[in-house]
Task: structure prediction
Amino acid sequence: MSQPTERQGWKWGPFTFRLPFYHTKVCWPELLQGFFVAAATGLALVPIMTGAFGLTFEEAVALSFIHTTLIASAVIVFGEPYAAGWITPVLPLVLFFVIGGYDDPTTRFQAMTALSLVFASLVFLLGVSGLGKKFVIWLPDTLKAGIILGAA
Result:
């Protein structure tokens, strides 16, 4: 068996930056599917952001576009996604904690921001240290499948 070849890109520490259209080619069916899925999932949060967090419709849509751009660019900038399938299953738990624990939309927004920053720093630490790959390998396949199916 041959060893898998490393995908092209610019290495920066443990990460590989891949410039779109230079290091990666466009796969139109996947691109269109990604746009539709990103629009559907991102815009599904607009009613929650307007109702529970006190944002206007325009602010919620703008925040949804920023969120989708950051999630989509993570694979290009950092190389491999570790957190993509883990965010969706935990979203109801986080929303229950934030909406149930805080009365004011401002404090809810602050709590959600704090949770997001803590999670981002955890995932960044797992990626930089290489523990993310070890954790994914260590985790049983049945538990991984349950998490992914729970997100569906």
